[in-house]
Design goal:
With about 325 residues, the chain is of the alpha/beta class. It has helices spanning about 1-35, 50-65, 85-90, 105-115, 150, 165-180, 190-200, 210-220, 265-280, 280-290, 300-320; strands spanning about 40-45, 75-80, 100-105, 125-135, 135-140, 155-160, 180-190, 205-210, 220-225, 255-260, 295-300. The strands form 3 sheets. The chain has a 6-stranded mixed beta sheet with strand order 2-1-3-10-4-11, sandwiched between helices. A 3-stranded antiparallel beta sheet has the order 8-5-9. The N and C termini lie far apart (about 85 Å). This is Tripartite tricarboxylate transporter substrate binding protein.
Length: about 325
Amino acid sequence: MMNMTRSALWSRSRAALAGAMCAGALLAAGPASAAYPDRDITMIIPFGVGGGSDVLARTIGNVIAEMKLIPVKILPENRPGGSGAVGYSAVAKQKGSPYTIATVSVSFFTTPLQGGSPVSYRDFTPLAAIAQSPYILVVPASSEYKTLDDLKKAKRLTTGTVGVVSDAALLARMTSKALGVQIDAIPFDGEGEVMSALLGGHVNIAYFNPSEVLPQIQAGTLRPLAVSSSQRVPALKDVPTFTELGAPIVHTQIRGLVMPKDVPAEAVTYWEGVLKKVAESDAWKKQYVDRFHDVPQFLDSKAFGAAIVETSNRYETLMKELGIIK
């Protein structure tokens, strides 16, 4: 009887010990997950210092730091090379880690489609988008083309683009289809050359981000005809959208952040909250939206992911039409 009692007591002791260990484990796990992030975040920038992607990434980091939205630092790290392939590959290799982030650029889509990168958008987790950069279709102030309808009457038009595959080339193809007029995209080495070609009468039309073209519009040397976003640009309230003018064209550069594939859902939710606060802040409006005349827009992870797929499909269609890929 005594042995049975001792056995029962021993069993109870073991059960109590096991319960205590489980409770201890849960308590240890709880604070660890609640403490995310508990170390610095690496912001990989797939391009050099001073470029558009660098400015975007560092501005996001600055706003987050100023507003004290996270308890750790964001450490920017430039990894240029391979038209974005080097930097984006470095992010994708951190599969499952919620401590590496990157911004989305045109090369995020085009380089993989051209076979220049071992990773594509499928290797990333969309976090959120916080703004969009529209394009303004412009002509010289002396141009005979004063409206979008005037372009329909042209037999053939030319535009300038930086490289063969770009947003300007994509928009030229979309405009061509919408208006029923052939538009030839001529590649140049930079936006400055495109501007010179337009002002010099060597191309008929051009597409620029608002920050690139606003001074010329204000000076009266260029005439804006339409904007490629779904809504008008605050800095150019009198310029209608393509859709307002009956042309089904909506295409913008999406400004958002991604992480590697398979990061915890909790991390995605965390960054959705952080980036929503950034997108709605006066600091972001002053430091980026007003500076570059972007359109503020917040998209959560799901909506941003859908926009990424849609954008990639647009580029793929364009590149196939141009014979760049099969």
